[in-house]
Amino acid sequence: MKPGPVRLFCLLCIFAFHAGVRAQDGTWRLGREAHAFVLENGLTVILQTDAAAANSVVQLFVRGGSRDDPPGNSGLAYLTMRLALEIPDQTKLQELMDFGSSFSLRVSEDYSLITIRALSRHLEPTLEIMAAIFTQPLFSGLRIDGIKEQMRHLQKKESDDPNELMRALATANFFGSSGYGGRLFGDESSLAAIRKKDIQDFFSAHFTAANMVAVIISDQDENSLKRLLARCLGRLPAGRKITPGPPQTGQAAQPALAVTRQSAQTHIACAVLLPELSAENYLLAGLLQTWLGKGIGCKLWPLRDQSDLTYGVNADVRPNRDAMLLTVYLKTGFERADEARISLLQILKAVYENGISEEEFATTAAYELADFFRENESRERRAATLAFMEGMGLSYRLAGEFAARLGEVTRDKFNRFIRDGLAPERWFLLRIGPK
After folding, report:
1. What is this structure's pTM?
2. Which residue ranges make up each domain of the chain?
3. CA of 159: how far to CAs of 155, 167, 184, 435, in Å?
């Protein structure tokens, strides 16, 4: 190894150690070992105690996202989830504010995630209020129209943001206008088509114990937490687990697309479909994302550091259940856009032909491990990761055993993953900027 990579490798290993690898003996390395149990209504609960601070976080994973929007009704998942969390009156809102509690919502392709934050001494009344809201939501016409209007503003915001537009265009090119390719916030025609009954049906099908996972991280003792969760979340209807529709594997509808935008920068992106989500593929995709576009020393970094060709480089994996989507992209000036495009394609071609070296693989794995522990240091983020992995069928234990499982990935296996997925003819090229 050269002196530079050696120093980087050592620093990353030390960081990974201090970020969580030292938790305790055994394979679990993400705080105290979490435990799973099932409420009487069938709701799976992941519980982790953490005495570091007197606050608590609850993540509610709902198996229902934009992929589940019926054709012609894009935006239904987001609209339903937003309505399910509408506070019925100002009294409840004031109580939450007095408690110092808060909540937020994220709707993705395969799922929705509700985050509830509270000081531990106020966790019980906070969870009581939130459970009452999302078990008996009010789907009034006035509320529906209000959220639809907010979604129209979000549609415009999304189209004005080059990064969001890039992701939307790349996804639509592979999956069309529905499923994974549907618009999270819908469009004018789909919002007009969504009726109150559509919302009620979507809510009734997805907001059930069979289609949800709860994760709680708190400093309170396990027995009191179990009683609280049984009382608040045990009121969810049992329901039945929804089987996703036919797998969406997709293929690029066209090899390239140029979108004219009057801006000072040009965005250039290459996107490719990866295999379906599994524990092993999740680890391999994470390594690939890190190697290509994460941090100083990644494969795209010379475009910024040595040639000063770009303002920024990145790589992003969308961990869709049926087919993950990898996008690598850069921002450059209009006058050097063609040069940047050629350089990007040359790097991706070399990645496919040459694979990764032993030195690069060791450094990438160390960086990926350190980044994982850094990202999951906070309770909120850690709980979200546990919820995602359990809800998507990977098992919450993958998070705690991440170091051991990552260590099982070999360079040969990683290079096969590259050879199977990154052939030049499989990439979709996108350019957004001045003509």
Report:
1. 0.92
2. 35-235, 249-433
3. 6, 10, 12, 18
